[in-house]
Structures are given as C-alpha cells and as structure tokens.
C-alpha cells in the first residue's frame, strides 16, 4: 500500500463534507498524499460560496439533523471548507473536479471554490488512486 | 518543566479534532530547529493523535502534563 489516500466525494451534505475534510486533515497530518475527487452532489457543494448557505444533512439521519447542526454551531466547529484549507496548508492535498459532472451541469472551473485545482476524468482519478487506499463518501 | 523554555504555546482548548493537531503542526513549522513549543488541548482524540504525529514526524515529545482548569499541555521539541 502506497502512502496515499484517495477520497471520492459524491455527497454534498454538511455531515459528509465535514467527514471528508477531517479525514483529509488527519491523512495530511500523518504525511499521506491525499487526492479528493469531487463528483455529483459533492461537486455542487464546491460551487463558490455554496458552503455559506448549505445546511443539508444526510437524509438517513434526518431525525438527528437539528441536534447535530445545533451542536456544531454551539461548539463553533470550523466549516468543512476551512478544515479542508487547513489540511492543504499542512500537507499534500489535491482536489479534482469530475469532468462528467462539470459537463452535465454546465459548471466551469471558475464557478468552483479555488481549492479545486483542475478538472479530471474518472480514468485519471483511478490511475492516481492506484496502489493506495480509496474511500467513497 | 524545569530547565526547558517553551518558545511558543497555543491554548487550543475549545477546538476539536483535528484542530489541536493542526495547531501543533503550524507551531512546529514556524519554529526553529531545537525550539520547544506547546499546545494545550482538552480534546480526547488529541491525547493519542498528537503523540502519534510527533513520532511520525520525528520530533521529540518532551512531556504531557495536566493543566489547571482541565486539559493537557503537550510539549514538543522540533528536531529537524
């Protein structure tokens, strides 16, 4: 196993975005190379300023949603985007946008948060992920 | 800690995993080789994470000491 971790971010809910960013931070801290492939709802969450208004939580846990959001606000948990930016400061973390989603939803790279470096196809992602751990969120 | 001078300390109580670890990494990066820095954390996960990171990053964990009011001070020397 190479010392790298690849995260496929398919979900765009705050709970899963926070999980992605926290995992990326931990992996970056432990000196693993991290690549995050943002696709579909995950990509929508990366549109500029979307993090400010996005309050969606996983449907599976909606009975817990109000409590979870309240706890995060009261305890001033940093936003998932700030957490991800911190991970990028301390380690090798790359965020790639999924080409298919970009085409389908007519999104351009400049519509996304600046943490996204480029647009790649799934082939590139799989090739980059080869030999390391892969997580689907 | 007698005889050891902490050049910089961050009180990261109130921030959660991985916040205190991130603070330690930032401190170490901004320090000179040989400097001793400290992070105070009350976060449960950090108790294991911080020593694990210090080991992985090949620095020296000088001490972990309880802090008045709750939490732990992690004292680390930058080795390289």
UniProtKB/TrEMBL annotation, chain A:
It holds the Pfam family DrsE_2. Signal peptide: none annotated. Gene3D superfamilies: DsrEFH-like. Transmembrane segments: none annotated. This is Peroxiredoxin. It comes from Methylacidiphilum kamchatkense Kam1.
TrEMBL record, chain B:
Keywords: Transferase. Transmembrane segments: none annotated. It holds the Pfam family TusA. The keyword Iron-sulfur does not apply. Belongs to the sulfur carrier protein TusA family. InterPro entries: TusA-like, TusA-like_sf. Gene3D superfamilies: TusA-like domain. One of its GO terms (molecular function) is transferase activity. SUPFAM superfamilies: SirA-like (SSF64307). This is Preprotein translocase subunit TatB. The keyword Transferase applies. The gene is sirA. Residues 10-34 form the UPF0033 domain. It comes from Methylacidiphilum kamchatkense Kam1.
